[in-house]
Design a protein that fits this description.
Number of helices: 3
Shape: elongated
Largest sheet: 4 strands, antiparallel
CATH topology: GTP Cyclohydrolase I, domain 2
Order of helices and strands: HEEEEHHEE
Strand order of the largest sheet: 2-3-5-6
Helix content: 10-25%
Number of strands: 6
CATH architecture: 2-Layer Sandwich
Strand content: 35-45%
CATH superfamily: GTP cyclohydrolase I, C-terminal domain/NADPH-dependent 7-cyano-7-deazaguanine reductase, N-terminal domain
CATH class: Alpha Beta
Length: 130
């Protein structure tokens, strides 16, 4: 199998390290002595294909068991909205979101799932967990 012609390493890395996003904020977990799940959904996520510029629409799901911190929802909303015009592959979206939340929160468990809606008859779901 060969790599698809026309795609470059620059396309593949798009949005991984070079995308400036607003900072995520956190607040102290009032129940750090127990395990419980927090589930957050954003059904209106958008970004763009780094090669074609075509829009991609997705449903973002974040589930985590907090440690000392919980993510502040307004900062998460602004963070997700900043992807709107970014050229970024589906895999990079999910992994970037996971890594940024992991770095900020250091949760006991973290799952990020991004369900991309059909484009050209194909859907993609990318799930990252730790």
């Amino acid at each position: 199998m060969t790599q698809s012609s026309g795609y470059t390493d620059q396309h593949a890395r798009a949005g991984r390290d070079n995308l400036a996003l607003p900072p995520l904020s956190a607040w102290p977990n009032q129940y750090a002595d127990r395990d419980y799940w927090i589930e957050i959904e954003s059904p209106e996520f958008t970004c763009r294909c780094p090669k074609t510029g075509q829009p991609d629409f997705a449903h973002v799901r974040v589930r985590y068991v907090p440690g000392a911190l919980c993510v502040e929802l307004k900062s998460l909303k602004e963070y997700l909205q900043a992807f709107r015009e970014a050229g970024i592959f589906h895999e990079n979206v999910a992994n970037r979101l996971h890594d940024d939340l992991q770095l900020l929160l250091d949760p006991r468990r973290l799952e990020v799932q991004v369900l991309f809606l059909p484009r050209g008859g194909i859907t993609t779901t990318v799930r990252v967990e730790s």
